[in-house]
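Late entry, written up from scratch paper. The run itself happened at the end of the previous shift, but nothing got recorded in the book at the time, so transcribing now.
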Amino acid sequence: MLVIFCITAIVAQTYMQRQQQAARRKAIIRQMLETAQAQNEIFDINILDKGVSHKGLAALLQYISPTSLGMEVLNYISRELAGVTVEVYFRATLPEGPTFYKFRSVIESVEPRRNKSLLRLASPEDLSTGQKRVFIRVKPPKDKVRVIGVWELNSSKPIPRNTSEISNPLLHYKRGMEIEPVQVENISATGMALRFPMEDLDIKPVDLDKGSQLLCLIIYHMGKDEKIVTFWCTCSVLHARVHEGPNPALVLGTEFTNWAVLEQGKSDINWFHSTPSRGVSPITQWVMHMDMEQRKLL
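Output as recorded:
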C-alpha cells in the first residue's frame, strides 16, 4: 500500500508541475503578444499550405483570448484560408532590445470586408525565437508615391543603361489620376507586390505571370523633408494571384534583381545587383521610415 501511495503522490506531483509549467508558458506567451500589440507591431503570416494561392500576409493583432487571436489584414482575404496552417513571425521590443518570435497556428475563420479582413487564429501553445524576414514589409500610403511605371523586359536583351533607351511603359500611374492602373500593394527591401485592378475576372489586365521579368520605376517621397527619390529596378515575378471580392485585382509578387537611384537631371542608370540576403538600401530606409510613421514613432 505504501508503494502505491508513493507512486500516486509522485504522479500527482508531476502532473501539478506540468500544469504549473504550462500556465507559466501561457502567461509568457500572452505577455509577449500583448507587448507586440501595444507597440503596433506587424505580424507576418506565412501560409504553409502549398495549394493556397496566398503566401504571405501582414496583420495587426486586435485581441487576445485564451483560445484565439484576432488579426486584422488591410485587404480583402477569401474565406478559402479558413483551416490552413500558418507560421507567424513578430517582433516585441523589450528593455534589453528587440526580440523576434515565431509560432505555428491554424486560421480558424476569416471575415472578409471591403478594405480589410479579420482573421481568427488558434492561440499558440508555444513560442520560439526566430525571424522570417530580415526586412519589414509595409503598404505605402498613396501620398508617398508620385509615379509608378511598369515595363516587361526581354530577357534576351541587356537592361537599359540610359533613360533614352526606355520606351513607353506597359502601364503607369501618376498621383492624382482618376483611374489607377497599377499600385504598390506592399514593399520591402527585397521586393514588392504590384496590384492591377480587374474589371472582369476572366480578363487579365496585363499578360504577366510567374517568371516574367519586369522593369519598374517608382518615384516616391522620403523623410520629413519629403525628398523625391527616383528609383529604378528590375524584378522577377515570383507568383501571380487574383484577389476576388469587392475590388478584384491581379497581384504580382516580385523580387528585386537590380536597382538604381537616378540623380536629379541625370539620364544614365548605374545599376547595382540585389540579393534577398542584402536587400536594397534606399528601399530599406524608405520602408523603415514608413513603418515608424505608421506606428506613430515619428
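Residues 2-38 form the longest helix (37 residues).
(Scratch paper discarded after transcription.)
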